[in-house]
Amino acid sequence: MTPVSSPDFIRADDVLHGRLSDAQSVYLEKKYGHGKLIRLLEVVGTGGPFKVLSPWELQDRAGQRVINASGYAALPFGDNPPELNAFLREVLAHTDQVMFAQQSITSWRAALEANLVRLLSRESGDHQSSRVFFSNSGAEAIEAAIKFAQAARPKAKYLINFTRAYHGKTLGSLSITPNPNLQGPFKNLLNPAVITLPYGDAEAVERAVKRVGDQVVAVVLEPILGEAGVRIPPPGFLRRVGEVCRAAGIIVIADEIQTGLGRAGHWFESVAQGLIPDILTLAKPLGGGMLPVGATIVREEIYKPLLGSIETVKRHSNTFGGNSLAMAVGLKSLELLMDHDYPSRSRQLGERGLTRLKALQRQYPALLEDVRGAGTLFAMNFRPVAKLPFKVQANLISEATGMLALVAFYRQGVLLNFSLNAARTMRLTPAMNMPDDLFDEMFSRVETAASMHASSFKLVQNYGTPELLALAKAAFLEE
Ligand SMILES: Cc1ncc(COP(=O)(O)O)c(C=O)c1O
């Protein structure tokens, strides 16, 4: 094949047949893609390219086998699961439906719309006449939710969100993601009418509703904060928010993009905790880890003001949402989740894993400040590797702690997730169909990694400051 440094085009067949080497891919990604991130991952050693050994195990370029506890809750069945892979091949071989379905009816989309509404209505005893709008990511599902809500309450202007929430990085979803670092220079483009309340504080919601309730479009919440490191609200919080909003006519949007479809141990965490939202967003696992699928499920009366009349029917759309391939994968993913009752399995695995994490935290309190879990959404909160009085340094220390922990656990063969709103918290989001022995092995490796670093300071000693500085320098300073 032509050398990658030549300006010639790369043939798809060359990639298909493995003629683009790992080193060439790294070179091209760094040169033409998100170079800084790739460089950082390369130096930390967790960026692959990986060979997929099984849906749950990866092998890196150095030949190390790692159990994949990453995937950011988007891999319900692991990476490239054989059931979905085989099904996709069948779809491609046999379907006679249009692939590009923006302006046509297709059986694939019709079936997934019906199944999602039927599932939510089975679980909540409500939502029988709700509708589904499909998009291509979680952030887009949130954008649609905000637009549906605003169109249904046109005279109101405020959105209520919560501290440390994460709803995405497009401008609308970033408006309700109160992370100053992520909002950065875009602040002036974001919706100013956002009221951020302390997560878990139902009384704060009551007070805000009493004050400005008639001007509130919607309350947007995650039933468990995912990117803030699996933070579970106090019992009764979700139920109370639902009651307060219903009484005031305020729309409740439950963002179940991370928690939903079994990850936190139930089909819908909000519903399981007594809150029936008016709008519910889904994404990540709906695409089975294979294709992007976002869905916004909306009560009919809230759906209509945005898309229910001849004047407004074009106010929201996207080109590829609902395409047949994405819908086929979504339909099959949902079916696999139901046939195997993975939400229950996620709950059982969750109890088993959290028991081990709690024991570990008791054993190594100088390493682990806290551990948390809900279903197969686990978090380990590491103690800072050092204490410094200034905030800016504290942020750097947090970043360093997280990164060192990631490296330490990776070297014992477990790939963890960063948390976007909690630098010192690493999450495990293993596939819900991970075999029992591998699941137990994953926690054994976690225990080994912890035992080798009985305190956070040990992380610095083992992968010490010089190494960390070298990482930072290599990633950000040297070109
Ligand atoms: C709760 C929640 N909402 C929204 C999003 C955004 O989804 P996406 O990255 O697909 O845009 C995420 C992603 O992590 C999420 O966890």
Automatic annotation (TrEMBL):
Nucleus as UniProt keyword: no
Sorted UniProt keywords: Aminotransferase, Pyridoxal phosphate, Transferase
Cofactor(s) this protein requires: pyridoxal 5'-phosphate
One Gene Ontology term of the molecular function aspect: pyridoxal phosphate binding
InterPro entries referenced in this protein's UniProt entry, alphabetically: Aminotrans_3 (IPR005814), Aminotrans_3_PPA_site (IPR049704), Class-III_PLP-dep_AT (IPR050103), PyrdxlP-dep_Trfase (IPR015424), PyrdxlP-dep_Trfase_major (IPR015421), PyrdxlP-dep_Trfase_small (IPR015422)
Chain segments annotated as transmembrane: none
Xref: Pfam families: Aminotran_3 (PF00202)
Family: Belongs to the class-III pyridoxal-phosphate-dependent aminotransferase family.
Stated name of the protein: Aspartate aminotransferase family protein
